[in-house]
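Support request from a user on the community tier.

User writes: "When I paste my structure tokens into the form, the page sometimes reloads and wipes my input. The last time it worked, I copied everything first. Here is what I submitted, just in case something in the input itself triggers the reload:"
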């Protein structure tokens, strides 16, 4: 039995959709960039921004001399915590503005705090409400006989305790080609599947492409595909039963992730009540095909 670690190049084929790498500054689409940012980086960025704003206003309050009542003159600590109270609009305790200059700064910071709170609330809601797919793809694709025909197989599973309705899956091979005129192209060829859609996807799905005379992979070898820098792309879409919104998931297999003459280990079992379930412990495992 062979086990494989998950490839770190899962989305490499998506980056190859553009023949030229383009640089997009963050300001080009800041909203989309903040939504697509990973949670830990998003929280770190918001924390840095929050403390930076308070530090900036703390320095401004320090220039007011006696503008903040009961604050030690020249104390950055008192000015910083006064800024936090002002930005969060929680109200003042022993420290409060007592000069016109300080009150102008307080007015600006309160207005800025309300604006930032509105923006942050919208971002948090958009990130939480965005439906995401928890679809698991096998670490490798296998090639083994099925009904006497060599068949490329990929295994997927729904990791959530719900259903994906009207699920559709596509398999394609992406490879380099040179036209008769000498143009270098990155081409996509759809691979015909034995079953490309299912009304309900809640457990596992074995995606199968027969390599027959109509297959773009017919007559190809690992060596010939390597010369064309070939990859196998998988794209799944469906309707999330919980959110009633369309979700999608994608994965890619490079040639090092394609294992010929192997099949997937069976992961279906039945409990004492006769219910079918899957054991994801062996989800990525493959075994050699017996001759």
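"...and here is what came back when it finally went through:"
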């Amino acid at each position: 039995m062979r086990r494989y670690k998950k490839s770190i190049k899962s989305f490499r084929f998506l980056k190859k959709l553009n023949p030229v790498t383009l640089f997009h500054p963050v300001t080009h689409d800041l909203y989309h960039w903040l939504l697509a940012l990973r949670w830990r980086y998003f929280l770190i960025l918001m924390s840095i921004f929050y403390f930076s704003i308070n530090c900036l206003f703390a320095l401004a309050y320090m220039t007011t001399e006696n503008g903040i009542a009961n604050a030690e003159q020249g104390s950055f600590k008192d000015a910083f915590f006064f800024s936090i109270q002002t930005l969060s609009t929680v109200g003042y305790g022993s420290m409060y503005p007592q000069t016109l200059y300080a009150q102008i700064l307080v007015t600006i910071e309160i207005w800025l705090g309300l604006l930032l709170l509105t923006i942050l609330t919208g971002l948090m809601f958009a990130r939480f409400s965005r439906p995401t797919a928890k679809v698991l793809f096998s670490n490798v694709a296998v090639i083994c006989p099925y009904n006497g025909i060599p068949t490329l197989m990929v295994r997927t599973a729904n990791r959530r305790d719900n259903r994906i309705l009207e699920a559709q899956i596509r398999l394609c091979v992406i490879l380099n080609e040179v036209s008769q005129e000498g143009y270098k192209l990155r081409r996509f060829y759809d691979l015909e599947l034995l079953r490309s859609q299912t009304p309900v996807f809640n457990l596992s799905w074995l995606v199968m492409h027969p390599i027959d005379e109509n297959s773009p992979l017919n007559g190809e070898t690992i060596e010939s595909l390597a010369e064309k820098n070939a990859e196998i792309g998988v794209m799944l879409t469906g309707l999330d039963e919980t959110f009633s919104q369309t979700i999608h998931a994608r994965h890619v297999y490079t040639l090092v992730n394609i294992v010929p003459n192997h099949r997937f280990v069976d992961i279906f079992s039945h409990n004492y009540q006769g219910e079918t379930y899957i054991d994801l412990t062996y989800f990525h495992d493959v075994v050699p095909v017996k001759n």
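Agent notes: The reload is a front-end session timeout and is unrelated to the input. The longest helix spans residues 100-129. The CA atoms of residues 58 and 79 lie 5 Å apart. Escalated to web team.
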